[in-house]
Amino acid sequence: MPKIIYNHADGTHDVVDAPAGTSVMRAAVTGGVAGIVGECGGQAMCATCHVYVRPERLAGLPAVSEDEDEMLDCAAAGRDSERSRLGCQLFAGEAFDEIEVDVPESQS
Amino acid sequence: MALDQELSPAHSTRSADWVRLDDLHDDPYPVYARLRDEAPVAWVPAANRYLVTRYANVHHVDNDPETFSADETGSLMKRVMGHSLLRKDGASHARERKAAGVPLRPKAVKETWTPLFRRNAERLLVEMRDAGEAELVSQFAAPYAAANLRDIIGLPEVSPEDLTAWSQAMMDGTGNYADDPTVWARSEAATQAVDDALAEALPRLRANPDDSMISAMLHAEDPLSPAEISANVKVTIGGGLNEPRDVLGVAVWALLTHPEQRTRVLTDPRLFSVVFDEAVRWTSPIGMYPRQTTREVELGGAMLPAGARLGVVVGSANRDPRQFEDPDAFDIDRPRKAHLGFGSGAHYCLGAWVAKASVGQVALPMLFDQLPGLRLSGRRPVRAGGWVFRGLLDLPVAWDH
Ligand code: FES
Questions:
Q1: CATH number for region A3-102
Q2: How close B283 gets to chain A, by Cα (Å)?
Q3: Which of A23, A49, A72, A90 to mutate to test ligand 1, by most ligand atoms within 8 A of the CB atom?
Q4: Single GO molecular-function term (chain B) (predicted)?
Q5: Which of A58, A100, B188, B259 has minimal CB crowding within 10 Å?
Q6: Which domains are seen in chain B, by residue range?
Q7: What are the chain B neighbours of A39 within 8 Å (beta carbons)?
Q8: Calpha distance B118→B120 (Å, rounded)
């Protein structure tokens, strides 16, 4: 099963096995991972699922869409032009088999 | 936390015949607390619906639109306003949402609307400032929300007073379960007035597109029909006015009654956004919305038949101690967790960014900045009311001038 590693600012991390088709946001919300909110349920409307993808995991991810791009500019924690993504737009099995992300300190 | 683990074994649905609508109107929270504990999905005769009161169940309903449809049969909202996107599911909902949503996205809000919000707030504050006191809901929150809404929808020739009156009349219609003919007459007059305003606006915006919502619906890749535009404009007038009005009143009241939090916010105005969000959680302006089951289903330990009419009680979910610690407290320091004040899933509030900007970034900071020493005047008691929609009815304030 695809694997997602969430690194937190305090040095701890969560590892979630996500069935194919699950987004980085949905896996965190259902898996009880702190720091990812996912208020809009994955419509690229709320920016509360912002994550920083680890540089070595960026290869092969789909491009940022226009809506995602606009929303990332609204994320509470500063946007990183290379690494920032919306967790709701990255799907296990499609975008990655294993991914490691840093969870921002704040989503609002 | 898996939602399924929250569900207890099925048992027959309990009837909560002790729930009275008057109590819900005055102070719904003790009623919700009892419902959450005793019967989280309960048949409530007074509301003629099953009320869903726990966070986990509400979240589950929001995320399973195939079972819990927004397209309610016999919906009073459809009767009054026509079939808007709020009562549609799936592809037809998505299509209308996409068309209507363009001017409500964050970039448009920031670049096009926020300067306008500032102008609208400033104008009202100039009118108020010398008086030294005001009833903040009717003298600021409502006209401010109306002026903003008028500009965003694209009906600049309509007065904020008319818009407020139409909104109220239509909302009264959507809640007219008592079938009161005078309420129907008023709501029909209001919808006719909206259609008259649209008849004037549509040709103009068809010829001269602008940044407004009506223009966006007209000029979308897959343009909406006049009937679709009319229904969506009506639902926007209904919803787009009382929510920002109510959350603004609640947020001001919360700060005036929590002086320690107020002091901190005034030294760090970025916290106004947190105040806004906590106010939406604490006293959710939309307290309940309807859904209807498309099949027999178990929810929160209750068996619901196909076609069951539900009331999804966000106002209760957002005070569920299973989700929020000390949920009845207004606390800008609470750990950030998803609340359901804007709904969640496919129907997540289209106006969320407008509300965040107009209330959290513009109105709240400007009010506290330009009305020094803002406080409750004490002339009359502060009154709150409602459960389907909840907000302050009377917020008498004073300031130094
Ligand atoms: S969940 Fe809302 S933008 Fe990703």
A1: 3.10.20.30
A2: 17
A3: A49
A4: oxidoreductase activity, acting on paired donors, with incorporation or reduction of molecular oxygen
A5: B259
A6: 21-398 (1.10.630.10)
A7: 338-339, 342, 344, 348
A8: 5
